[in-house]
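Researcher: Next entry in the queue.
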Amino acid sequence: MVTADGCLGQYTNFWSRGAMPQFTLKIFLTLLIACVCFSETAWGENFENRHPQPSGPWFTGTLLSTRGLTLDQGRFVAEPYFFFTKYGGLYNDNWRLQSAAVSDTIVQQTYLIYGLTSRIDVEIAPQWLKNSAEGESISGFGDLPIQLGFQALRSSSDSWLPDVRIWVQEIFPTGRYNHLSPSINGLAGTGGGSFATTLGIGVQKAIRLGGDHVFRYRVNATHGFFSPVTVQGFNAYGGGFGTEGRVDPGSVTTLIVAGEYSLTQHVNLALDIGFQTINATEFSGTTGVGVSGEQAIVGRGYGNLLTIAPAMEYSFNQHVGLIAGPWFSLRGKNTTEFFGVVAALLLYL
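Model: Structure for this entry, 349 residues:
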């Protein structure tokens, strides 16, 4: 699938601080310069070389990974996603799973992607969320991601070099995050209240195996950093009665390794493995008190999360495909344990 990198993060309830470490910027710029130097004349490859012919497999992409190719100029993709996720535990500071209140989240997010030029595409992904627990719920539109992607390297099919795409994404805080109702204490809002910037790189390559079988791998690496947020009362970061102050959310680094294997022209197997590092949240101000009079908690500590998402793809043709499968956590530290189901419809125009 052509998912945005923020997809993985929305179930860890993270929002990062607004300062990018210098080493991350240096790495990103080094990768960009290297990709441009390797690209040589690869910019001129046409649509037929970028997409399989009718005799080859039709890949939709995996559930979580982001594409390594920009769309051709004038091409358009619409991809509605549906997520249903149930939370039933918390990973503590020692990577051990502890019981917690059961809650669930429904997300409908539609990715809309357009090829601006042969090297640049743009993507927006509006989303609607509903969080529920113990008979209470909160719903509404979430934060709005807008992404700009650049083709750093486009490889020919007979080359060992992969396709490489880099992107920058900005998330605008259009969701509800502040002044939440005490009756839904423990449920996150529909947004984070922060302007979130993510830099990412996507690598992919298709390798023909024996017979008509093809294996395509993808590797994504992203780093997200977030602006400070003023919070009051019950909010997406915790809080309670009388809470007032500023939250500096921790930055987030994500690595996704993914693969697709063609069984037939129409049917493929897919797998994503994701690892995420979430830096601690910092809060300054008055913490307030919770619904039972206890001191309220705002933010969370340093965390890690390991997830996996196997899936099955079915493509009707080169322009329409379906993918569905489970997505669940394997291990974590100071994060939430979850199990979910994800489905998406790919429409390539």
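Model: The first helix runs from residue 6 to 9.
Researcher: Noted, moving on.
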